[in-house]
Specification:
By secondary structure, the protein is of the alpha/beta class. It is about 40% helix and about 10% strand.
Length: about 280
């Protein structure tokens, strides 16, 4: 145990997520229950991108309704600064008992560096059994599992063909050259082919993952494991070089909206709603 309060974390959504949270709450050092972890109440932090009720909050309310003796205090936190916020709370010792973060070490909310800092308690065999084959390095540290996967996030391009049609695009481009040509036309009218929340690290990361799906993982599906074992690096990967160059090309050819680097999620919804992206 470190000087900081250590908490249990979960990354992602099981069929019974709130049940899993209740089991894991006893592992935290919040002081909300006794040392045996028999408390029937705990706090729960998750990221939100709008003012709508999060599915996690809905699940928590439904679980409490079905189990009157249980109290779950939800702490929704804006996604744009989520990683920085939970890091500050962990360092101050006032973080929630259960936290949704991200597997691996790819951003400020990454499980591995936070576990290395001593903020999280290791979980049990149930959590370990839920980790997908080949993803051990994203959830485990020194042979111990510090998080359990809760969902799969699909990284993809979501296109409004109605908006595209209003701008003279009747079919989705099937080659990058065709895509860049459409970018140039729209940029000339002060519009963009793509709207991206560049200021939100997870969104920027998902953009790279979507591009890397064909350039990296289609030919080398074990890249993550190979990198974790020191058999390769990002710099040695032609696929990742192509991925990052594609992002540069998209920017240079005017495919992103103006000010994409500082854009929030409102840039996406407003761009689609107003027909500018």
């Amino acid at each position: 145990m470190t000087q900081h309060r250590r908490v249990t974390r979960i990354a992602g959504l099981l069929a019974l997520p709130v049940t899993a949270a209740l089991v894991l709450a006893g592992c935290s050092g919040s002081g909300s229950g006794d040392a045996g972890g028999d408390s029937n109440s705990f706090t729960f932090t998750f990221a939100t991108s709008n003012n709508l009720e999060s599915p996690y909050e809905t699940l928590a309310k439904e679980y409490m309704a079905a189990n009157p003796g249980v109290t779950i205090t939800s702490n929704p936190t804006p996604n744009d600064k989520y990683g920085e916020t939970i890091r500050t709370q962990l360092q101050a010792g006032n973080a929630s008992d259960v936290i949704i973060t991200a597997p691996g070490a790819g951003d400020s909310r990454g499980l591995i560096p936070l576990a290395q800092a001593g903020f999280f308690e290791p979980l049990g065999d149930t959590a370990t059994s839920l980790v997908p084959t080949g993803s051990d390095t994203l959830f485990e540290l020194d042979g111990k599992t510090y998080g359990q996967p809760l969902d799969f996030t699909i990284g993809a391009v979501v296109a409004s063909m109605g908006t595209a049609g209003m701008n003279g695009i009747t079919s989705w481009p099937t080659t990058m050259n065709d895509f860049y040509a459409e970018c140039a036309k729209l940029a000339g009218d002060g519009k963009s082919m793509i709207a991206i929340a560049g200021a939100a690290a997870p969104n920027a990361g998902l953009t790279a993952q979507g591009i890397a799906a064909t350039r990296v993982y289609a030919t080398d599906p074990n890249f993550n494991t190979e990198r974790a074992e020191g058999k390769t690096t990002f710099a040695q990967s032609k696929g990742w070089a192509d991925t990052l160059q594609t992002i540069i090309d998209l920017k240079d050819k005017g495919c992103f909206q103006a000010g994409a680097e500082g854009g929030g999620f409102d840039a996406i919804t407003n761009g689609l709603a107003q027909g500018t992206s």
